[in-house]
Amino acid sequence: MSARALRVVLGDQCSRTLSALADLDPGHDVVLMAEVMGECTYVRHHRQKIALVLAAMRHFARALTARGVRVDYVALDDPDNTGTLRGEVMRAVRRHGAARIVATEPGEWRVHADMLRWGEAAGVPVEIRDDDRFICPRADFARWAQGRRVLRMEHFYRVLRRRTGLLMEGDEPVGGRWNFDVENRRRLPDDVHPPPPHRVEPDAITRAVLDLVARRFPNHWGGLDAFAWPVTVRDAKAALDRFLAERLPQFGDYQDAMAEGEASLFHALLSTSLNLGLLLPLEVCRRAEAEWRAGRAPLNAVEGFIRQILGWREYVRGLYWLKMPDYARLNALGADRALPSFYWSADSGMRCLDAVVAQTRELAYAHHIQRLMVTGNFALLAGLDPREVNDWYLSVYADAFEWVELPNTHGMALYADGGIMASKPYAASGRYIDRMSDHCRHCRYDVRESVGERACPFNALYWDFLARHRARLGSNPRMVQMYRTLDRMDSAKVAALRRQAASFLDRVAPARRRSA
Ligand SMILES: Cc1cc2nc3c(=O)[nH]c(=O)nc-3n(C[C@H](O)[C@H](O)[C@H](O)COP(=O)(O)OP(=O)(O)OC[C@H]3O[C@@H](n4cnc5c(N)ncnc54)[C@H](O)[C@@H]3O)c2cc1C
Ligand code: SF4
């Protein structure tokens, strides 16, 4: 008989196929799952994020126990709980006389650095296994990246399409194109009504967690009332089925749209299930492909959806591990303005931004374009400090884990990595928001105005951003058109726009604390 192993399962590792559990001996080994304060508070998470992870952990522990696995579950309220992962691993090794620790690599660099010290702290060897729930192993991404001057998602995506055979005919992409993005930029017409999002009613276990979170985290931001996230594999599969049947066919058309009162439109709301391991990315992509092959969903929708998971999700994870820890410290545009208080209070007066913040507070969710082109775009244009912005994104979304949050925020939204991820900053004026949403119709600002009391703040901020960063961005071939337009303006107009931007920013109050 082999020496007893302590198999550690982290909160976002609720997968039956987890590598740490692969060769588990149920009569002998012990699985440790620990709810620790340190993980609940390393940023001030939205209360739904904490509840989501704890509820998924409790359900997963129950499912393992039902299969005859011995699970040592340490609850947050356990009086002996040390509050840290390392402390709980050390206690469990002693409690069970474990001779070795087996774990799956964590999603976050911070936890990985800690995990490397577990063996020494507990006095037994620790084996850290690859997280094979991702489609592309970290080592494969590093090999792909080696020697490349630019690391664009689109190139990486094609490699994975070929490797998995997803949407391929031999060596060629189905439909003759790799990417159908140009067809995926429609505004939501008034007479198109997305189906209501799939809700999972909390069961007794989840309700107990919601009570616990309300009691223990009274000062964390975000409401618990709307909690309806999948917390088991069965819930997540039901959510996937509903998405494939009801939303996928129009996912592509309205992928970039935003609309008043519509939090998710035709988006999947599956990131929490994927990030916790309730769904596996390849299985989700294959299910979506099958919808196209059966003629139930068009190619622009299915390719667009698969690209998010096979392309973006795998790419940001590879990039994160390739570039950390230095990546988090980059600040290519020298942005240093404090995060405004309205990122918490939703009272900026800018209808688009307040809508996203209020929705985020209620649901711990915003879809990609809301994150990128409203809160992200404002942060980019206003020159907000990337550390504060990253902290905000990591705090406010139920799906936020640093491996996926950081590249999206730092690289895609803020261009803080100087172009490692994006070939140009995603900077846009109010015109973009007006084209893709109906927010401007309800706003106290006028999107057609750039200067004056009622002018949309995004407009002056946009031109000010371009003028401010001319030295760095002026020669970017993808920005030539924008700079040409700026150059055609007379200098008095540019000066007025820059004054407008400065006076707006002068009036913005910085956030003092991060509670509601
Ligand atoms: C500033 C910013 C911060 C973000 N932070 C996070 C985060 O903390 N956690 C997170 O999971 N996603 C993050 N994203 C990516 C994306 O916004 C979310 O994955 C998506 O909105 C989740 O909603 P959905 O499941 O309805 O997605 P859909 O639009 O329906 O997409 C389907 C799936 O594709 C994946 N996906 C889509 N876009 C991306 C992307 N850019 N990167 C990685 N995966 C993607 C997700 O797993 C998602 O569930 C961020 C994007 C931006 C611009
Ligand atoms: S007018 Fe400007 S601030 Fe108002 S909703 Fe439109 S883009 Fe947002």
Taken in chain order, the helices and strands follow as EEHHEHEHHEHHEEHHHHHHHHHHHHHHHH
* Unreliable parts: none
Largest sheet: 5 strands, parallel
* Ligand list: flavin-adenine dinucleotide, iron/sulfur cluster
Tell me the structural class: mainly alpha
Strand content: 5-15%
Number of strands: 7
Question: What value does the average pLDDT take?
Answer: 96
Anisotropy-based shape: globular
Oligomer: single chain
Give the helix proportion (percent range). Answer: 40-55%
- Alpha-carbon distance between the termini? 54 Å
User: Number of helix segments?
Assistant: 23
Radius of gyration equals 24 Å
- Biggest sheet: strands side by side, in what order? 3-2-1-4-5
Report on the structure:
This protein is mainly α and 516 residues long. Helices cover 48% and strands 5% of the residues. It has helices at 37-41, 47-66, 85-96, 109-115, 118-122, 138-145, 153-164, 204-216, 233-246, 248-251, 271-276, 281-293, 299-323, 342-345, 351-363, 368-382, 386-396, 402-413, 430-436, 457-468, 470-473, 480-488, 491-506; strands at residues 5-8, 30-34, 71-74, 100-104, 126-129, 168-169, 172-173. The chain has a five-stranded parallel beta sheet with strand order 3-2-1-4-5, sandwiched between helices. A hairpin with a 2-residue loop joins β6 (168-169) and β7 (172-173). The chain is globular. Flavin-adenine dinucleotide (FAD) binds at residues 264, 267-271, 274-275, 308-309, 312-313, 316, 367-368, 371-372, 376, 393, 397, 399-400, 404-405, 408-409, 412-413.
